[in-house]
Write a structure and sequence with these properties.
The chain is an all-alpha fold. Among the domains are: about 30 residues, no CATH class; about 35 residues; about 45 residues. The chain contains ten helices and no strands. It starts with 11 loop residues before the first helix and ends in a 6-residue tail after the last helix. Belongs to the RecX family.
């Protein structure tokens, strides 16, 4: 089954002599360990990306991006600007996509709210997450108001520390710090750590 077109193995010594390249000595799989992971993904590598997109090509790329996941308006502008020839065209396109509801900060905000709540995050952490993506938290103001944050904080406290109400100051302070870090307001925190299991 041997084929002269495909040698059985590379002769590195011979290659080194022909190319006079001493670096071939380290051309093994293990030598790739020092490379950054992104260097091995050519589609994302700056040296191989397609630049200067305009018109229908830019629009097609925008649709391809949006089919993979939701983006805030700000994120989408920055993403497309990496590949577009003109930033002004990107701004105009993103506005158009938002009007046609292909891109929606409202939808993005609602998705983030749902995701963050599932992760046990309180309102303050959720607002910070929205701000990091330049999304106005007023878009989900009603949803934030309607959420029972007292219950959310209590369920998280129970999951982490159980139903017992701690009396020792040091342990109470630990629970308070944990819930504060998760983004809950102090009022909800105090109610959560003092709530007894049989309280309604």
């Amino acid at each position: 089954m041997s084929d002269p077109k495909f040698p059985k193995m590379l002769d590195y010594d011979l290659l080194k002599q022909e190319l006079n390249d001493s670096h071939l000595e380290s051309a093994t799989d293990s030598s790739l360990n020092h490379l950054a992971p992104e260097a091995l993904h050519f589609e994302d590598h700056p040296s191989t990306k397609v630049e200067g997109l305009t018109g229908s090509r830019l629009r097609s790329y925008a649709f391809a991006v949006l089919t993979r996941k939701e983006y805030s308006k700000s994120e989408l502008v920055e993403k497309l600007a990496l590949y577009a020839a003109h930033r002004d065209e990107v701004l105009k396109l993103v506005e158009e996509l938002a009007k046609e509801n292909y891109q929606s900060d409202q939808r993005m905000a609602e998705t983030m709210l749902s995701s963050q709540k599932r992760k046990g995050k309180g309102p303050n952490r959720i607002k910070l997450a929205l701000k990091s993506k330049k999304i106005d938290s007023s878009l989900i103001q009603e949803e934030l108001k309607e959420t029972d944050w007292n219950e959310q904080a209590y369920q998280l406290k129970v999951k982490k520390y159980g139903t017992q109400v701690e009396k020792e100051a040091k342990l109470k302070a630990k629970q308070i710090r944990f819930l504060m870090y998760r983004g809950f307001e102090m009022d909800a925190i105090i109610k959560a750590i003092t709530r007894k299991e049989d309280d309604i």
